[in-house]
């Protein structure tokens, strides 16, 4: 019987594992979420990566998914030192949200 092999991203390198880890990530958008996230389940498997911990995902430059919201305030306090530019949890979730320039607004 063939076992599933999951690509775990840690310290910039992929490790193959029989367990998926605690979080799943989408490589093109650098977004991570819970394993049961509806958005994550729709992603193309070739773009999927996994993380053993919240810290691993954040260190790799991934931001939390806005749909499944895998980080609560208590979690954010634990990882805030890794993202000092984001003073609040909401700012971390909105990291990639860009406001249109004045000339682009309608």
TrEMBL record:
Stretches assigned to the Ada DNA repair metal-binding domain: 25-70
SUPFAM superfamilies in alphabetical order: Ada DNA repair protein, N-terminal domain (N-Ada 10) (SSF57884)
Record flagged with keyword Transferase: no
Keywords from the UniProt entry: Activator
Recorded superkingdom: Bacteria
Protein's recorded name: Ada DNA repair metal-binding domain-containing protein
Biological process annotations from GO: DNA repair; regulation of DNA-templated transcription
Keyword Chaperone among record annotations: no
InterPro entries with a match to the protein in the record: Ada-like_dom_sf (IPR035451), Ada_DNA_repair_Zn-bd (IPR004026)
Listed Pfam families: Ada_Zn_binding
A GO molecular-function descriptor: DNA binding
